[in-house]
Amino acid sequence: MLLFAGVVWVVIRLCAEFRTAVVPVLLALLGTALLGPLHRRLVKAGVQRSVAAGLTCVAVVAVVGGAVYIVVAALIDTGDEIVASLRDAAQGIADHFGAAGTSLDDVAANARDLLTKFGGTAASGVISGVSVVGETIAMAVLALLLVFFFLRDADKAAGTLRALAPRGTADALVAMARRAYQAVEGFMRGTTLIALIDALCITVGLLVLDVRGAVGLGALVFVGAYIPYLGAFISGALSVLVALADRGFVIALWALGVVLAVQVLEGHVLQPAIQSRTVQMHPAVVMVAITAGASVAGILGMLLAVPLTAAGFGVLHELRTRYKSGAPASDS
Fold first, then answer.
1. How confident is the model at residue 330 (pLDDT cuts 50, 70, 90)?
2. Could you say which DSSP state residue 209 is in?
3. 3-class secondary-structure state, position 316
4. DSSP string covering 220-272, please?
5. Cα–Cα nearest to 228, from 187, 265, 261
6. How much is the pLDDT for 125?
7. Residues 257 and 205: beta-carbon distance below 8 Å
8. Which long-range contacts (C-beta less than 8 Å, at least 24 apart) are formed by 191-194?
């Protein structure tokens, strides 16, 4: 166990040191897992693999660019309303609880200043703001290029892995890699679809209740869904607080009912139906993975932690299956 922990620590440190190269690779793998079905359909339709990969990348740029524009525009258009609603909620708490509420009101009133100061503190002494922008753009471009190559050469992956594997381990390594990729693919597709359904349901519910900033809150729900449990809790709590400040206690209860109904729908219908083929993980494991990812790489680590953990569980499941069935772990 100590040896395993030491190896994991060394790997994490190396990934942190080479994050500019590691992060695009991980993002490209997630993008490839999400876009793989579209690429395969184009290939089956007779499109040449390189052309299909290029069309898929163009499609993802258009879709992601459009989604980012919609989310940012929604947050910009409704951000002031959301902040104002939070200030009203804090003022209501201040009226009932005195000094404690006043401190909350101060936090809400200076939310933007606090976020700016926090961002500056986190970045100070590490890298300048211009370098951060340049590094982010470089990683995004590299990730997009890697998605193209991963999609185009996906059919060669098994052969390459077999050629690189030590003698007698090729079959086992290919099986584990395939199971890990299937787990990540299922997670990405299922999470994206569930996030879209959650965001639409909550947005419609808030619009029916005439809550200010409904579209922006729905955008936050969609983004937060990629961080299981924690993202849904934060975005749902924010929606209820805004409804409380904007429409009062009764509407806030209705908003809470909408959020809870969507969570029940997700947990009892969407998750079993959409992610039934994905590696199932206990909520405690997911929370530990999110916490570990946040401690290593902040928000980006939180986003990557769960799919990487799903890949790890896929590998463990494959190993357990092979050992239980008594299948040989080496080439014949």
1. very low
2. T
3. helix
4. HHHHHTTSTTHHHHHHHHHHHHHHHHHH-HHHHHHHHHHHHHHHHHIIIIIHH
5. 187
6. 45
7. no
8. 191/225, 191/226, 191/228, 191/275, 192/34, 193/270, 193/274, 194/225, 194/266, 194/270, 194/271, 194/274, 194/275
Cβ–Cβ contacts within 10 Å for residue 61, how many?
12
What residue type is 37 in one-letter code? P
Q: Among residues 296, 306, 242, which one has the least CA distance to residue 14?
A: 296
pLDDT at residue 89 in the model = 64
Give a three-class secondary structure readout of 3-68: HHHHHHHHHHHHHHHCHHHHHHHHHHHHHHHHHHHHHHHHHHCCCCHHHHHHHHHHHHHHHHHHHH
- Count of beta carbons in the 10 Å neighbourhood of residue 229: 14
Angle between helices 129-152 and 19-44 (to 10 degrees): 30
Residue 291 near residue 297 (C-beta atoms within 8 A): no
Highest mean pLDDT among 12-16, 76-80, 119-123: 12-16
How far apart CA 78 and CA 84 sit, in angstroms, is 10
**Cα separation of 90 and 100, whole Å?**
10
pTM of the model: 0.68
pLDDT tens readout for residues 163-192: 877 877 778 888 888 888 888 888 888 888
Distances (CA, A) of 247 to 218, 255, 258, 280: 17, 10, 15, 39
Q: What angle do CA 8, 225, 297 make, to 5 degrees?
A: 30
Amino acid at 189: R
